[in-house]
Amino acid sequence: MATTEDVEETEDALFVLTAVLLTPARFPSVLGDDYPEACGVLGLEPYPQGYGLVLGQDGRGARWTVVVDDVSLVACALAAWDCGMEYDLSPDERTVVCALPGWPLHVAVAAPGVPAPHDPLPGPGMEDLQAPLAPPDSSQWGSEQRRLGADEIALQWAVWREQFEEPETSADASGPGGAAEPAEPSHEGVRKVLREAHAYVKTPPPLGRIRSSFASDGARILRADGPGWSMVARTDDIAFVLLDNMPGEVLPVGRGSRLPGLLKALDELAARPA
């Protein structure tokens, strides 16, 4: 791995463009289904306190991802930016863990006055650099795109929820007062996801594979991932499932009598933002 000295040797300071958190409760899910997997992609130890990822360009325009252990600093910057406020994100060199070539995510902006973003060019002292990080190909469908799709649903829950009615009801399954309950999911892939999610309750999965974030009216947005699948749910509503083998498809799961208990149990296991 490179250090910040390698970045500075290529052309002075780094122009910071954006940043993201890499913690058990909040990490770029494009990197993996859980926190240890995401850390492994970047060659980092999955320390519980997490990291901040600072994305920028050097003076020659090269893309760099600088990993810092000052999580609070990056969190403050993100909070300020989300509120439309300026914040000078300038990590102390003592907090820098390493600098990795490339960006793992798409960045829509570029530093002014420097060449267009590009991967660092080979040069003296850079022979041991790993292959540059790069965002996934948006024209393909796979695990990365499936997780990015789940990210979008979690971020825009209300928009997605409006597109789906409660899944079909079963005429022979009556609840209190004779009200029909949603039928058992007919899609085998969805049934498999629910079985694996139930298994998480008995045997907790790796850190970050279940995450919980704030939602309105006292509810939570719950995110769970597993091999080949992602599930996004609101604890007081339905769930959505995405599968690696169903490109671009979003499959709704009705509440019925079982989903509320599952979501409650998963939420109790979930990693939450500090």
TrEMBL record:
<feature type="region of interest" description="Disordered">
    <location>
        <begin position="165"/>
        <end position="187"/>
    </location>
</feature>
<protein>
    <recommendedName>
        <fullName>Integral membrane protein</fullName>
    </recommendedName>
</protein>
<feature type="compositionally biased region" description="Low complexity">
    <location>
        <begin position="170"/>
        <end position="183"/>
    </location>
</feature>
